[in-house]
Design goal:
It comes from Corallococcus exercitus. With 251 residues, the protein is mainly alpha-helical. It has a domain at 133-251: Leucine-rich Repeat Variant, CATH 1.25.10. It contains 13 helices and two strands. The protein has helices spanning 5-17, 21-29, 42-56, 60-73, 77-87, 99-109, 114-130, 148-156, 175-185, 191-204, 209-219, 225-231, 237-246; strands at residues 163-166, 169-172. Helix 5 runs parallel beside helix 7. The longest helix is centred in the middle third of the chain and has 17 residues, at 114-130.
């Protein structure tokens, strides 16, 4: 099966039939810029995708084809999420590392808010990397992408791999990758990229506390206030207080 227009029309029609105007309005208020939302929750979006995959017996390649067409035609927020939902269960057992190029393309050309970015990272890229841990460190160059969502994903996609039990062993994300990403993006002007820097550093304090604290001390003059506060959230109160005291005073 290819991603025929009939399949895409069926998915979009089903999605619209589950819409809730009140949820759509709440979703629109959730984002700083106006978006087109149908008002379908994430769990329902995934149920729609799973039902179609099961009903039609789609192969991983079929799922990817549907995803590509959905993303190319998406006009509403939930249609992007539906595209990711269609392929999320296929990436763990199919495809090779060239799929990273598709992930980057989607981030740079089809994602338009932080929720879509994070959905791709945490529901699609996460199972992809679980099955291919050597590929985890191969997205560092995304920090230089022209897209803020791709730059955000360079951090968000790594958060669950700072330290993780995978099968019979523990995977530890190299400290150099964590601090390298943070260093590259410390001066990034986009607030959602800055939030991703703080998020990655915060999780890293559980496993590389001395290195992260040293990084903050070394770079505190370059750190934005929200990034700093997010990064130190899990430190002891006295350590947080000491680091905040180093923050340059605002004029």
């Amino acid at each position: 099966m290819r991603a025929t227009p009939a399949v895409i029309d069926e998915l979009r029609s089903t999605l619209k039939s589950r819409s809730d105007p009140r949820l759509a309005e709440a979703t629109r208020r959730y984002f700083p810029t106006d978006i087109r939302a149908l008002g379908v929750g994430n769990a329902e979006v995934r149920r729609i995708a799973d039902a179609l995959v099961k009903q039609r017996g789609l192969s991983p390649e079929d799922c990817l084809a549907v995803t590509e067409d959905l993303l190319a035609q998406a006009t509403h927020h939930e249609e992007v999420l539906l595209g990711f939902a269609m392929v999320r269960k296929a990436v763990g057992r199919a495809f090779d590392e060239s799929l990273l190029d598709r992930f980057r393309y989607w981030l740079e050309h089809t994602v338009w808010n932080w929720a879509q970015c994070d959905d791709l990272c945490l529901t699609v890229m996460y199972p992809f990397f679980l099955a291919r841990t050597p590929a985890i460190t191969r997205i560092q160059h995304w920090t230089r992408s022209p897209s803020p969502w791709c730059r955000r994903a360079a951090n968000v996609a790594l958060v669950k791999f700072v330290s993780r039990d995978i099968r019979s062993s523990r995977y530890m994300l190299p400290r150099e990758v964590i601090l390298g990403n943070a260093r590259q993006l410390l001066s990034d002007p986009e607030p959602y990229v800055q939030k991703s820097v703080g998020w990655l550093l915060k999780v890293a304090t559980d496993h590389h506390r001395e290195a992260v604290v040293g990084f903050i001390q070394e770079n505190i003059s370059r750190m934005q206030r929200d990034t700093l506060r997010y990064a130190i959230e899990r430190l002891a109160p006295e350590q947080r207080k000491a680091l905040l005291a180093l923050e340059p005073k605002q004029p």
